[in-house]
Write a sequence for this structure.
């Protein structure tokens, strides 16, 4: 059993082939350490508002009562890696849903219901890069809490 709660990493859109090996590295490592699953939802709708509204509906089963919802969003709070690890650790015994939004982001009402918005920096990142970076930070959090030498301060 790992040091983090069970985590569902929820993202939109099938990863491009070039990103799959990167994602698989961290998915495999996390699956060995904690209850982890990567849920990939299909982005659909006619225009940004429709896509975001549909995304909110698709996220509901993964972000229900008793689930601590973390959304990576450019308007979120900046965390150091150790502070992010503590945030996730302190959620136990709840389960966690970590969400990467659609290519248009997420609806404001969904963002308002999230327990924590986190940003990966001030710059806009391509969706695939944000997904990879967020996944790596979850893995880094587990290694930090386990005292593993992966993280170098």
């Amino acid at each position: 059993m790992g040091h983090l709660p069970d985590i569902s990493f929820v993202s939109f859109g099938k990863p491009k082939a070039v990103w799959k090996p990167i994602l698989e590295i961290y998915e495999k490592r996390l699956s060995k350490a904690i209850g982890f699953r990567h849920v990939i939802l299909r982005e659909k709708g006619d225009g940004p508002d429709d896509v975001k509204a549909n995304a909110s509906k698709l996220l509901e089963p993964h972000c229900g009562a008793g689930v601590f919802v973390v959304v990576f969003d450019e308007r979120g709070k900046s965390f150091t890696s150790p502070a992010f690890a503590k945030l996730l650790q302190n959620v136990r015994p709840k389960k966690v849903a970590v969400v990467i939004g659609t290519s248009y982001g997420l609806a404001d009402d969904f963002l308002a219901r999230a327990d924590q918005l986190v940003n990966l920096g001030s710059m806009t990142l391509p969706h695939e890069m944000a997904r990879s970076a967020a996944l790596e930070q979850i893995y880094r959090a587990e290694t930090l809490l386990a005292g593993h030498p992966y993280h170098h301060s």
